[in-house]
Amino acid sequence: MAKDDRLSNYSPTFKVKLLVDALEYIKKFSGTRCVIKYGGAAMVKESLKKSFCDDIRLLRAVGLRPIVVHGGGPEITRTLEKLGGKAEFIDGQRVTNASDLKVVEMVLTGSINTELVTLLNGNGIAQAVGVSGKDGGLIRARKLVQEGRDLGQVGEVTRVNRDFLEMLLQQGYVPVVSPVGLGEDGQSYNINADNVAAELAVAIGAQKLIYLSDVPGILKAGELIGQLTSADLRTLIDDGTIAGGMKAKANSILRVLASGVPSVHLLDGRVPHSIIGELFTEKGGKHERHEEIRRLLRARRISTQQELAELLAAQGIETTQATLSRDLAELGVLRVSRPEGAVYELEPVNATATPQLAELGETILSLRDNDTLVVVRTRPGMASAVALAIDNRRMPECLGTLAGDDTIFAAPARGVSTRRLAQQIRSLFGREID
After folding, report:
1. Domains in the chain, ordered, with CATH?
2. More confident residue, 325 or 206
3. Which residues are catalytically annotated?
């Protein structure tokens, strides 16, 4: 006789925990304003475009009010070269003459902005609206002269039409902003998208400013720096560690932090769903949380996720069961049996490489589908690793997974039956699972 895996059959304690995890996010993000500078590989690779748009839709669904500012440097450069032009940069700023500006506007506002709005509105959820900085007088600018050098039609922000932005946010729209401003002289100006994002964050009192680019963050001697204060950032600028295009970004960050925006995040846009991974945490993001998990597992014996979550909370790092399950899988942590009882280990004895899909499949005990979910049961401690393998395959049939210690809930994408999703999961692990 098959086991009935409907969610209604699980214990009240389990269901309360599931709801609390979800409500924590909804409460945390409801009404929160966040400016996201969209750039780098995330604008070029189709799969990254999709994951970015999925992130924005999810953030809006849980009550966050995002504003997207996009760049377009590589596309502008390619278009200029096709037309016989040549890109020139000074300290990370594009030199833009009058004829180049027409190409810049065509690419930024006419092509990139339109495509991004179309992708975001593909399922009718995002309610994205594309605007140039010239629309509604959103961005007023003046000519930028950098260290006495004329950059052409390059500008800096002098004023933001906060009322216009507020109107869009209050109506539930996601503004997608092209970084072109209008001067008091009637001239159009190409403005660094990092600077535009910073000025918009200050103008609307955003709680977070996020930069997506093609680097994991700020590096020193090849090592990623997980967290910085304003003073630390200023030191890295002054000693030359930060230079070029990153210098302009760093100066924007200093301006934002000095104006009261609580936090700024530099994320690697080459990593799918990096925005969700960063925002759905508390203290310092994934990097700091991973470091603390490693330290705790090396320092003491920990038997349950609840115990680990409480130890993290004592260090000021709040997390949820779903996030912690992902962390443990990403760190290669397994829950192993010892004579004194089960324990989480970072580097298990006789550990080899990460188990292949077939080996992971052997840890699955059962797989059932009901009206709303696919429920996968595994050996104790293996659910997070199996769920990560499912997520990493990025099946179009799967919206996402939620893993506990030995149970995974997999939600089908819109229009996909749970039976079809179950078949895809079975195929992934190369075996028939009852």
Report:
1. 1-28+352-434 (3.30.1360.40), 31-279 (3.40.1160.10), 285-345 (1.10.10.10)
2. 206
3. 37, 40, 73, 194, 249
